[in-house]
Amino acid sequence: YGKQQLHGINTKGDAFMISLSKEGPIYNASWSPAGRQFTVVYGAMPAKASLFNEKGDQLFDFGTGHKNMALYNQQGNILMIAGFGNLRGKIDMWNTSGQKPDHISSFDAPDTTDVKWNPDGKHIVTSTCAPRLRLDNGYKIWHYTGSLIHEHKISPPDELWEVDWQTRADGVFPSFPVSKQKVQGIEIKQEPAKQAYRPPQARGTVSTFKLHEYQPEDTKPEEKNKKDKENLSKAVLKNKRRRENAKKRKDEEMAAGGGGGGQPQAAAPPNHQNGGGGGPRGNGGGGQKPPGSKGNDYQGAAGLLYDPEVEKKKKKLNDKLNSIKTLKQQQAEGKQLEKNQLEKIAKE
User: Fold this and answer.
1) Do 186 and 150 touch, CB atoms closer than 8 A?
2) Which of 75, 93, 94, 162 could form a disulfide with 121, with the two C-beta atoms 3.0–4.6 Å apart?
3) Where are the beta strands (DSSP E) in the chain?
4) What is the pTM of this model?
5) Residues near 242 by Cβ (< 8 Å), separated by ≥ 6?
6) Using 50, 70 and 90 to split pLDDT, how confident is the model at 268?
7) C-alpha span between 23 and 261 (Å, rounded)
8) Phi and psi angles of residue 104, each rounded to the nearest 5 degrees, phi first
9) DSSP letters spanning 275-333
């Protein structure tokens, strides 16, 4: 259901189905005027183009691209494969007069709504017509080698509805040798880039709008990100130096208090009245604290090396011990405990 297929039938009534190598819609199928070959453009974008014989056997693969049309000239020696409509208008010309197709040229004809071969087989006309497009109406004449020969634009409010060649009888323009040599043409005008919309009162003036005009200098995204990175780097270095200094002080205190049971002691202040002698000393070699003194509250690097995960585990363990202590007290008072409470006490 919903699948597109291509079938062929000859004059004897024999029908056959053409096998396509890519899933998707079938955009175009075009017979060569010689009647022995046809080209199909098919498959999801980027679409594929293939050459088949009259029996439906694939002879050549033109590759994939944004294309939806295949069209032979009247002589059957040149094949145009292009993408128009909602595509960008790229045109590829192929020489089909030999045993194997040979690429001739590629060029762009943007905003094309229609294309037709000249009866001479050497030129095409691409047109931009209303009502498909009502802007930039006009037509261009191209040589098959990619040279622009003529261009005509329609000025608004006039519109162009259709462009076609004057017909000629078959045989008036015989077949010709195909060449890749580009012929002389006119210069292709580059379309100016479309500007952003500006209200009528602002047109013709220099724009002074700035994206971050009303933001302080230090809050612009680029500068803010740079400043944040600098602040982060400074903070990391500062914390690193702080940890190193704290560890160094702790090691020095441990070394200085080695003779006093391994506990760091605060050094006694010098007594200048006794000739620089120290205060009274105890058996441990440390200075005795005067009555009413709070002692040394210095904890070394404890504050800097504080680990919240370790403290959390300690708190959890203490909570369990307190809970067991409470259960033991209740058991001593003769209260009947539950099985899980007894197991909790046993795990202490």
Assistant:
1) yes
2) 75
3) 6-9, 15-18, 26-31, 37-42, 47-53, 58-65, 69-72, 78-82, 90-95, 102-108, 114-117, 123-128, 138-143, 148-153
4) 0.53
5) 304
6) very low
7) 87
8) -105, -55
9) TSB---B-TTSSBPPPTT-------TTTTTT--HHHHHHHHHHHHHHHHHHHHHHHHHT
- The rounded distance, in Å, linking the Cα atoms of 191 and 60 is 36
- Tell me which DSSP letter residue 261 carries: T
pLDDT per residue as tens digits for the range 74-89: 888 999 999 988 888 8
Contacts of 249 (CB under 8 A, 6+ apart): 300, 301
What tokens were used for 128? 């931009």
Are 332 and 345 a contacting pair, CB within 8 Å?
A: no
Alpha carbon distances (Å) from 296 to 266, 269, 278, 288, 289: 7, 13, 18, 12, 9
pLDDT tens figures, 255-267 = 886 544 444 444 4
CB distance 147 to 182 below 8 Å = yes
